[in-house]
Amino acid sequence: MYPTRALRMMPTRRMMRAPPTEDQAGHTVSQRLRKLRKIPAELIPLGVVVGFALMAAGYSSFRKFSVDKTLRLQRQNRVAEAASEEHH
Question: TM spans, by residue (predicted)?
Answer without folding.
Answer: 43-62
